[in-house]
Amino acid sequence: MRNDFDLAPFYRSSIGFDRVFSLLNDPQRQHAVDAWPRYDILKVSDSEYRIIMAVAGFESGDLDVTQERNVLHVKGGKADDSKAEYLHRGIATRGFQRRFELADHVTVENASLRNGLLYIDLKREIPEAMKPRKITIGREQTSAPLEIEGEHQVG
Questions:
Q1: Would you say 64 and 75 are in contact if contact means Cβ atoms under 8 Å apart?
Q2: Sheet containing 48-54: which strands, arranged edge to edge?
Q3: CA distance 23 to 19
């Protein structure tokens, strides 16, 4: 079941949120999502986040973490081990590709692999120009009446 929301009222009263509205209406987000590999998203503080992804069997060379504008791509793939003869294969090492939409001003600070878990640390840093600033209200400037320069005739 698909619900389309009419976002027209929001477009009339907001500026710069068109990207958010596009994400809400994106039909790909409403399709079933592959659940492998499993991951958690933690809010560490007001401006710090962490993605923890279970990537057992992968080494750091098998993983690729890339940030492109407001999208974080995490890819994993192992070389095919066609020489090995498996009697049972229960450890999933198939390739995967995950995509995370990031808010404005969120960047990847660090990525590390420990005990089969990929840790990706993210931080939101608002640029100084985007932070609220106090505007002082001054007095209205009064200007002297304009005078036209010219020769004065003395009579």
A1: yes
A2: 39-43, 48-54, 117-124, 106-114
A3: 6
29 backbone dihedrals φ, ψ, rounded to 5°: -70, -20
**Per-residue confidence in pLDDT tens, the chain, 155 aa:** 455 666 667 666 666 666 666 666 665 554 455 678 899 999 999 899 999 999 988 999 999 999 998 899 999 988 776 777 888 878 777 889 999 989 888 999 999 999 999 999 999 988 888 878 888 888 877 666 666 666 666 65
Give the domains, in start order, of the chain with CATH numbers.
Answer: 1-31 (no CATH), 34-129 (2.60.40.790)
Coil, strand or helix at 9: helix
Q: Distance between CA atoms of 59 and 29, rounded to whole angstroms? A: 29
- For 12-34, the three-class secondary structure string (H helix, E strand, C coil) is HHCCCCHHHHHHHHCHHHHCCCC
pTM to 2 decimal places: 0.65
